[in-house]
């Protein structure tokens, strides 16, 4: 099965890089002679609605192709202090699955991910607030068949690592962009036989809005 070149160690490196970029120098922290740490006010609720697209990290089936699918994300977070938020994320994505030789449109896989999430906001650069977040939960997978084949993917453990930034339009509303990796590695029952090489892990690219209150 063909895999992209990105490996787990590279994801870790990207995570460290995101933290490094989000962490300012002492000069950036200094404002009017005072050190300022944190990118959000304590006691704030944050609601987000984002949409985008998600390519898989590899092909889902042998002798097959998987489409880049739509992605929708809902987020609700609460800031415990000026740099740490906790909350919940719900995400949906869909990917069309084709067999290449002979060509058969097998159908599509839907994934709904429920993810308790923590988020770090170490600093704010004017209207821009960068952040990194991490969530653990469950991927609820289902398959819509277009042929007589019966395909039933398993539900899987979900691990999501995201990094992005908010651009504050005012104190209540912001534009948002985010990239994330999500693990969705399990098995599927195909016509009564178990396929243990069923990996729907993906990269997500999200664009949307957030409100703060």
Summarize the structure in words.
By secondary structure, the chain is mainly beta. The chain has one domain (8-23, 38-212): Porin. It contains two helices and 14 strands; from the N terminus they run ααββββββββββββββ. It has helices spanning 8-22, 26-29, and strands at residues 30-31, 34-35, 45-54, 64-66, 69-79, 84-99, 104-120, 128-145, 151-153, 156-168, 173-183, 185-190, 193-199, 202-212. It is elongated and about 60 Å long.
Summarize the structure.
The chain is mainly beta and 213 residues long.
Q: Which secondary structure elements does this structure contain, and how are they paired or packed?
A:
Layout (H helix, E strand, L loop, with lengths): L7 H15 L3 H4 E2 L2 E2 L9 E10 L9 E3 L2 E11 L4 E16 L4 E17 L7 E18 L5 E3 L2 E13 L4 E11 L1 E6 L2 E7 L2 E11 L1
Antiparallel strand pairs: 1-2, 3-5, 3-14, 4-6, 5-6, 6-7, 7-8, 8-10, 9-12, 10-11, 11-14, 12-13
**Which percent range describes the beta-strand content?**
over 45%
Rounded mean pLDDT score = 86
Largest sheet: spatial strand order: 3-5-6-7-8-10-11-14
Structural class: mainly beta
CATH class: Mainly Beta
Count of all domains? 1
Largest sheet: 8 strands, antiparallel, barrel
Shape: elongated
Count every helix, treating DSSP H or I runs of 4 or more residues as helices: 2
Any low-confidence stretches, pLDDT <50, length ≥5?
A: 1-6, 18-35
State the CATH architecture.
Beta Barrel
